[in-house]
């Protein structure tokens, strides 16, 4: 997030696009709902589903899945056409405006209506409302990113925010909501194939030399590595021989599971380090038991870049060990000494090589977390990014055209499938499905379908259905829901026994390598 | 010094002239009132000064006098807020920070000089030169009446019920008999009403107990609703409608039949309730409790640990209650603590069973003849190290890959990528950010 969670309550207009906030980030949704219902903010929800959040919204724009770029270009067309964008911000803080102007020229409200299904009038009104806001806040989530155009979707939202001059101010910003407790931290810490900590590029000589010195080694690879999704592909092709998986269950969460399963089976050696046996440990050669969050000391970085303490509350079961200790033990056996007395010592090393974390100490975050970047120990941290300038200096507009999703509906597969999470379960359910209470509230998989579609197919609530795509088939129950809109079906991906990811498309965004979980073509019929 | 206290005592007695007799400057008081007097002197705020000090030394600034001391305030702040900021105790029951003050329970009443009656401090804004007494005899009297009425309004079968202190068994039998509800209150010891009853020494002697017409609701996995203990303070309604904005519950029915209802008075599980448990967290009494509260050991060694929730990227600050190496309760770390400011969701509050689950893996395992078998750490780690080394030597570093994790800590992620880059010598490290 460029801004803080608390900031949301101070916004004048909030656009929530591609985020089922009340279910995936329930606590952040309280800030959005409070802003809309108690503090007078205008809330605009843009989503293919009639989400719970639309009940608190002033306007719900129902767009066809995978048409976000067109819609945002439509907004920008209106802003430029009606000359109501923030000219001062555009002039002083950005570049590439002319290109953008040229590209969005053709995205007239009428043209955009044809692509997105959002009424031209609503496009014009929304653009005007957002332009009129002093503090316009954009919140988005996986509904924006999990597309083959994911990177461009994000850039489009950044375009819109810059055009309205909403970046660098409290109550504004472009705010992605991170799905897992420490996704932000894992990225910050260099748990990515192309960067070290704090996004220092592995193919940059300076960073590599710095790291070689810090780690007292030579020969760090300058070649960016493979993303998760690519590693699975390479495993299938036989190029990747061994995988070491820590705290993850890709055999439920990966796209096109039937294919992924074959790829994992093709590995020579699979090590899984986890707290439970999962669908993935079922294929493992070695399973290593580790600690869960309540058993260890350390830090998580939340979605607003706030580095916060995690503290040990209980003892871990049996012979389980700390994740870092296990990794260090393997390193030592492979001839590279990695020894730390405790997690705090590791954090001290992180500070030395990570400029944005350099000023943060465990002592400083004892009571309240600090927002990175925090370069020095007397720096207060940075709640709002890009206040005076962007990381690259001027903000760059990206002129982007709409592209169709990788798979479109046809006669054989006439429905669009979109996947996501439920409030009462979390990701692959490894943790939440151990709670009888949560299982009581969300016991099994279902496919969410609109009343009209159900009627047309002769389906009743609870009927067993077969859902098929080009890649696989699952059997589940139909759930007629007011959230569903005709033609679009939703399946939660938590449940291994009816895994939505047997259906999903593994086509990736070319830059972010994120799979298109939010659009694929399927068909549904009553189970025989 | 003592003279001052004596003067105060006289003051107290004057206000309670019905109950006291002055004879030749001597006062006859019974032991209960003497305790009250001691309480004034030693426990509560320095009332003494309130009786002797007057005038505002700060001039025309925004100051207010509370119990004889002057405090500055921001326009719009309530008397309660000014008092709390300055560590002056004013009891509250219905007040909920961040929500609109309703002033419905009246327990926070204070005496404001010049006002016709006592004032609800949670709703009354501080005004310049206001003179406030937070524990004056009038105030105490009012609070005791309120507490007495609240206690008699429902099934508050804890130690404050009037009984013969010599016969505990008799008391318990009577409680069971009288209540028609054999459940002992799970909030015992963690009940604001009970605290206040102790503080102001109120018992329910002589007051009839109202019978509750609504049965207890237990038909969901997390929240128990015991209407017999509800004091209708409305905090749960405010938490639901103004803090979490889930709009699942509200006041329903009328008059003596008033009840907190979900939807059209259905069970929580059939309503819009999302089981965030905010209502339970703010309930001052035993009306709303969590199912797992009953598992708490009352006098076990209890540890409270502040940490960060492990579900989703919001990073809610939570307070875990731990007994016997088991997490028995999860609550927010407080309404002033960012980023969640006292709010949690159903997973954060009730989804921690996995931590102590018997299904946790406890030993390293190696697949032998197609089956995973428990082995020692040495055996497992030696195998991993030799396999990684062998594959790296034979097929090159890029034939190896590591999935680090968005669930583990920063420190562990750092170690995982360091291992991948420095030991395996590849950049094939990534995690589930995209999935």
Q: Would you kindly provide a brief summary of this structure?
A:
The complex is a heterodimer of chains A (528) and B (435). By secondary structure, chain A is an alpha/beta fold.
Largest interface: A-B, 148 and 111 residues
Task: Please give the largest β-sheet of chain B.
Answer: 5 strands, mixed
Individual helix count of chain B: 12
Count of beta strands of chain A: 19
- By CATH, the architecture of the largest domain in chain A is named 3-Layer(aba) Sandwich
Shape of chain A: globular
Span from first to last CA of chain B? 72 Å
Total separate domains of chain B: 5
Give the overall form of chain B: elongated
- The amount of beta strand of chain A, in percent, is 15-25%
Number of domains of chain A: 3
Helix content of chain B: 25-40%
| Alpha carbon gap, first and last residue of chain A | 47 Å
Could you characterize what this model shows?
The complex is a heterodimer of chains A (528) and B (435). Chain A is of the alpha/beta class and 528 residues long. Chain A has three domains: 6-177, Dimethylsulfoxide Reductase, domain 2 (3-Layer(aba) Sandwich), CATH 3.40.228.10; 183-371, Rossmann fold, CATH 3.40.50.740; 415-526, Barwin-like endoglucanases, CATH 2.40.40.20. Chain A is 30% helix and 16% strand. In chain A, a hairpin with a 4-residue loop joins strand 10 (298-301) and strand 11. With 435 residues, chain B is of the alpha+beta class. Chain B folds into five domains: 2-43, no CATH class; 63-135, Ubiquitin-like (UB roll), CATH 3.10.20; 147-293, Alpha-Beta Plaits; 297-350, Single Sheet (N-terminal domain of TfIIb); 365-434, no CATH class. Chain B is built from twelve helices and 18 strands. Chain B has a five-stranded mixed beta sheet with strand order 4-3-7-5-6, sandwiched between helices. A three-stranded antiparallel beta sheet of chain B has the order 12-13-14. Chain B has a two-stranded antiparallel ribbon with strand order 1-2. Chain B is elongated. The termini of chain B are far apart. At the A-B interface, helix 2, helix 10, helix 12, strand 7 and strand 8 of A face strand 12, strand 13, helix 10, strand 15 and helix 11 of B.
């Amino acid at each position: 997030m460029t801004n803080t969670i608390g900031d949301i309550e101070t916004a004048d207009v909030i656009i929530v696009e591609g985020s089922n906030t009340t279910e995936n980030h329930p606590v952040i949704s309280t800030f959005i709902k409070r802003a809309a219902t108690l503090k007078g903010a205008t809330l605009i929800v843009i989503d293919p589903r009639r989400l719970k959040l639309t009940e608190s919204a002033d306007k719900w724009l129902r767009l066809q899945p995978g048409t976000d770029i067109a819609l945002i270009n439509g907004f920008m067309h209106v802003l430029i056409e009606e000359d109501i964008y923030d000219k001062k911000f555009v002039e002083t803080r950005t570049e590439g405006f002319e290109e953008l102007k040229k590209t969005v020229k053709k995205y007239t409200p009428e043209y955009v209506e044809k692509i997105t299904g959002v009424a031209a009038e609503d496009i014009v009104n929304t653009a005007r409302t957002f332009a009129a806001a002093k503090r316009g806040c954009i919140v988005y989530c996986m509904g924006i990113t999990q597309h083959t155009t994911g990177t461009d979707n994000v850039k489009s939202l950044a375009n819109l925010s810059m055009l309205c001059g909403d970046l660098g101010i409290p109550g504004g910003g472009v705010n992605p909501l991170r799905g897992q407790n420490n996704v932000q931290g894992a990225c910050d810490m260099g748990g990515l194939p192309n960067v070290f900590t704090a996004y220092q590029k592995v193919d940059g000589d300076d960073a590599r030399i710095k790291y070689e010195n810090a780690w007292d080694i030579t020969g760090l690879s300058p070649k960016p590595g493979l993303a998760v999704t690519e590693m699975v592909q390479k495993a299938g092709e036989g190029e990747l021989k061994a995988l070491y998986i820590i705290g993850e269950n890709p055999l439920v969460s990966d796209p096109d599971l039937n294919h992924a399963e074959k790829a994992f089976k093709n590995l020579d050696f699979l090590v899984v380090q986890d707290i439970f046996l999962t669908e993935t440990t079922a294929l493992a050669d070695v399973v290593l038991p580790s600690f869960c969050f309540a058993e260890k000391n350390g830090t998580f970085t939340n979605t607003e870049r706030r580095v916060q303490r995690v503290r040990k509350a209980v003892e871990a079961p049996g012979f389980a060990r700390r994740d870092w200790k296990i990794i260090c033990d393997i390193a030592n056996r492979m001839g590279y000494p990695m020894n730390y007395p405790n997690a705090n010592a590791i954090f001290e090393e992180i500070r030395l090589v990570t400029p944005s974390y350099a000023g943060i100490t465990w002592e400083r975050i004892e009571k309240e977390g600090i927002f990175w970047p925090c370069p020095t120990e007397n720096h207060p941290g940075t709640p709002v990014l890009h206040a005076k300038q962007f990381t690259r200096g001027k903000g760059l507009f990206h002129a982007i055209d709409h592209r169709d999703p990788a798979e479109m509906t046809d006669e054989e597969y006439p429905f669009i499938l979109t996947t996501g999470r439920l409030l009462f379960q979390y990701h692959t359910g490894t943790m939440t499905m151990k709670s009888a209470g949560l299982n009581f509230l969300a016991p099994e998989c279902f496919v969410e379908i609109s009343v009209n579609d159900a009627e047309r197919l002769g389906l009743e609530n609870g009927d067993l259905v077969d859902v098929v795509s080009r890649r696989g088939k699952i059997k589940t129950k139909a759930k007629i829901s007011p959230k569903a809109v005709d033609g679009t079906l939703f399946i939660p991906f938590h449940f291994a026994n009816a895994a939505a990811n047997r259906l999903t498309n593994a086509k990736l965004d070319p830059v972010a390598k994120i799979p298109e979980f939010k659009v694929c073509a399927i068909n549904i019929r009553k189970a025989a | 010094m003592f003279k001052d206290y004596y003067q105060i005592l006289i003051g107290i007695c004057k206000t309670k002239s019905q109950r006291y007799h002055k004879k030749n400057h001597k006062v006859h008081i019974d032991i209960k009132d003497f305790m009250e007097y001691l309480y004034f002197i030693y426990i509560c705020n320095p009332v003494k000064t309130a009786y002797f000090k007057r005038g505002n030394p700060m001039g025309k600034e925004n100051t207010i006098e509370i119990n004889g001391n002057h405090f500055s305030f921001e326009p719009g702040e309530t008397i309660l807020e000014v008092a709390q900021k300055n560590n002056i105790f004013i009891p509250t029951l219905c007040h909920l920070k961040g929500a609109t003050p309703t002033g419905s329970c009246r327990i926070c009443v204070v005496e404001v000089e010049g006002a016709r009656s006592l004032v609800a401090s949670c709703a009354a804004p501080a005004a310049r030169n206001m003179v406030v007494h937070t524990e004056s005899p009038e105030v105490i009297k009012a609070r005791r009446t309120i507490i007495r009425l609240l206690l008699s309004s429902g099934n508050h079968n804890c130690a404050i019920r009037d009984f013969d202190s010599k016969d505990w068994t008799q008391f318990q039998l009577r409680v069971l008999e009288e209540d028609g509800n054999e459940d002992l209150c799970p909030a015992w010891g963690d009940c604001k009403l009970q605290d206040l009853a102790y503080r102001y020494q109120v018992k329910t002697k002589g007051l009839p107990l109202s019978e509750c017409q609504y049965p207890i609701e237990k038909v969901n996995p997390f929240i128990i609703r015991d209407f017999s203990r509800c004091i209708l303070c409305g905090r749960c309604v405010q938490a639901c409608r103004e803090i979490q904005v889930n709009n699942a519950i509200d006041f329903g029915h009328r008059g003596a039949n008033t009840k907190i209802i979900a939807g059209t008075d259905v069970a929580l599980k059939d309503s819009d309730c999302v089981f965030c448990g905010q209502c339970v967290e703010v309930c001052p009494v035993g009306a709303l409790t969590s199912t797992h509260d009953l598992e708490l050991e009352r006098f076990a060694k209890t540890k409270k640990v502040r940490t960060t929730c492990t579900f989703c990227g919001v990073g809610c600050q939570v307070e875990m209650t731990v007994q016997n190496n088991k997490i028995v309760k999860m609550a927010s770390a407080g309404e002033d603590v960012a980023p969640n400011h006292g709010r949690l969701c159903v997973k954060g509050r009730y989804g921690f069973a996995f931590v102590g689950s018997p299904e946790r893996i406890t030993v390293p395992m190696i697949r032998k003849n197609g089956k995973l078998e428990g082995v020692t750490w040495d055996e497992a780690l030696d195998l991993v190290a030799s396999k990684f080394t062998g594959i790296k030597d034979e097929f090159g570093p890029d034939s190896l890959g590591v999935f680090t994790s968005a669930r583990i800590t920063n420190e562990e992620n750092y170690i995982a990528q360091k291992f991948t880059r420095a030991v395996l010598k590849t950049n094939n490290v990534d995690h589930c950010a995209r999935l």
